[in-house]
Design brief:
Shape: globular
GO molecular function: cis-regulatory region sequence-specific DNA binding
Distance between the termini: 33 Å
InterPro entries: Cupin_8, JmjC_dom, JMJD6_ArgDemeth/LysHydrox
Structural class: alpha+beta
Number of domains: 1
Radius of gyration: 17 Å
Strand order of the largest sheet: 1-2-10-7-12-6-5-3-4
CATH architecture: Sandwich
Domain JmjC: 99-233
CATH topology: Jelly Rolls
CATH superfamily: Cupin
Number of strands: 12
Pfam families: Cupin_8
Protein name: JMJD8 protein
Mean pLDDT: 93
Length: 233
């Protein structure tokens, strides 16, 4: 479902294609800056399993754990997956606080969801000394996670479009931890001088964003979106 948030055509994150070698990835991006990768994997088979109908048929009665969409204090709520899809998967209310916005992302039961993840082809690059962990999510248009940081990882859009905002570790963004990304975009972003603008880009299905360790980032789903991240811990 198309959202009401316009897509920003400008992209200030560097892009790379399948010609990027592992050694060049380590040299240019792994420890220094984000990059959007296109054509490095083919997840058409995984995408075919992630339609609304297929996911409801496979996982409808199973519980999923929802998190609040704020930066520091996450409240967890368990609901059946079917209830989330049919009743809670809605466009973001601009007036609703992050602590009152429930978001399905990250807390996946690998006993139940493991067979689905076996069909996912992760990006071919790794950071030495880390191991990958998947985090799968589905969210409504206008939803997203406000600014936060953690270890390095990749994030791929399966369905929909997802807008990303990123700052390096030494440049803390101006934001309220209980304000949704949509509210930040509407109220704070327009007041930023050019020197304080984040790196940003909108990802489309099949595109993968890599973000280095401790980079601040916030996300905004422009449509009802399905996405999966590979965290390198």
């Amino acid at each position: 479902l198309a959202g009401t948030v316009p897509e920003e055509p400008r992209c200030t994150v560097e892009r790379a294609d399948a010609s990027l070698t592992y050694s060049l990835f380590l040299q240019r991006f792994a420890f220094s800056r984000p990059v959007i990768l296109s054509g490095v994997t083919d997840n058409s088979a995984f995408r075919a399993l992630c339609t609304r109908e297929k996911l409801l048929a496979a996982f409808g009665p199973f519980p999923v754990r929802l998190s609040t969409a704020n930066t520091y204090s996450y409240r967890k709520v368990d609901v059946p997956f079917q209830e989330y899809v049919e009743h809670l998967l809605k466009p973001q209310d601009p007036a609703r606080l992050g602590s009152d916005t429930l978001y399905f992302f990250g807390d996946n039961n690998f006993t139940e969801w493991g067979p689905l993840f076996q069909h996912y082809v992760p990006p071919p690059f790794r950071i030495p000394g880390t191991s990958p962990a998947y985090s799968f999510g589905i969210a409504g248009s206008g939803s997203g996670v406000p600014f936060h940081w953690h270890g390095p990882g990749f994030s791929e859009v399966i369905f929909g479009r997802k807008r990303w905002f990123l700052y390096p570790p030494d440049k803390t963004p101006h934001f309220h931890p209980n304000e949704t990304t949509l509210a930040w975009l509407q109220h704070t972003y327009p007041t930023l001088p050019p020197a304080q603008h984040p790196l940003e880009c909108t990802l489309h299905p099949g595109e993968v964003l890599y973000f280095p360790d401790r980079w601040w980032h916030a996300t905004l789903n422009l449509d009802t979106s399905v996405f999966i991240s590979t965290f390198l811990g």
